[in-house]
Amino acid sequence: MVATMNISRREFAKLCGLTLVGKSLSTDLNWAFPQNTELRHASGKRVIILGAGLAGLAAGWDLYSAGHDVTILGAQLRPGGRVHTIRAGLSDDLYAEAGAGRIPSHHVITLEWVRHFGLELEPFRPQGLAEIALLKGKRVKIPADKPVDMSLVPLNLTPEERSIGLKDLGEHYYGKAAKQVGDRIPEDWSPTIARFDGMSMQEFLRQEGASEDAIHYISLGFENDSAADYIMDLVNLSSPLSKIKGGSDQLPKAFAAKLREVSITVARSSTSSEAKTMCASGAVTLGCWTT
Fold first, then answer.
1. Using one digit for the tens of pLDDT, what is the confidence trace for 120-146?
2. 214 versus 88: which is more confidently predicted?
3. Of the candidates 271, 278, 265, 248, which has an alpha carbon nearest to the alpha carbon of residue 83?
4. What pLDDT digit, counting tens, does each position of 173-188 carry?
């Protein structure tokens, strides 16, 4: 007799989340790295994974490595989930990233999978080129090798903020907090970090004395996000950033191709009905839920 779990999707996600939180806080990350598919066990189960993003693809790889018969279903015609590289309509091998693209140097798990599939990395930002900021409808050039001409900046900044300049404005207000928060979530948050998490980025910057236009410029429209989370993200972006040469979609495509080589099905399912049918028929014995 085949046993199935008759729980809701929300309940299933919660149970999975509790397991993954415990693993993500562990200092041992070996579970997340590529596993040896030659060390399979014979007594596996049939597994269905809903979602063909990188998490689903990596889970499929690891479950196959553990000896299970895996089917991965995704809602899109492509694998990758939030990793979405647009190529249609562009010529001369051009592409645009509409999803995840940058890889910080401390994202060791992603980098290990990139190396595992033999993909090439390159710097995320073009070297030595200026950036363009759209400020209140006006384009302002931010040179790579010299300060911004503040006379061209249409923001209502304080005299002190203008003297600091756009490039160093963020560091002026959140630099000290960034050193306290760091680039990853610790197992035990200090009272200081917990305090940052209890306020929005807007509240934090106001507390530090930033003007309203400075708050909007620094926050990039994320004023209501947790200050701890936003500052952590800013720290991540300040580290060396890489991207996959030729497009980020090469990583999920490499995953999918390799999974198919070992007979793991990566298929499209526009609704959960296909998964329900597989669960009800007994085709799957692990990872079933009903909604």
1. 999 988 878 898 999 999 999 999 888
2. 214
3. 248
4. 998 888 877 666 566 6
Question: Which CATH fold would you assign to the domain 145-241?
Answer: Guanine Nucleotide Dissociation Inhibitor; domain 1 (1.10.405)
Q: Considering all CA atoms of the chain, what is the largest pairwise distance in Å, rounded to the nearest integer?
A: 76
Each domain of the chain, given as residue ranges in start order, spans: 1-120+247-291, 145-241
Backbone angles phi, psi at 80, to 5 degrees: 125, -25
Question: Which fold would CATH assign to domain 1-120+247-291?
Answer: Rossmann fold (3.40.50)
What letters, b where the CB count within 10 A reaches 16 and e where it falls short, cover 258-271?
A: bbeeeebebeebee
First vs last C-alpha separation in the chain:
22
User: CA 236 → CA 165, 184, 214, 240, 283, distances in Å?
Assistant: 22, 8, 21, 9, 43
Q: Tell me what the pLDDT averaged over the chain comes to.
A: 78
Q: What is the pLDDT of residues 231-262, one digit of tens each?
A: 888 877 777 899 999 999 999 999 888 887 76
Checking DSSP bridges between strand 265-268 and strand 69-74, what pairing results, if any? parallel
Q: What residues contact 154, with CB distance under 8 A and at least 6 apart?
A: 135, 136, 138, 140
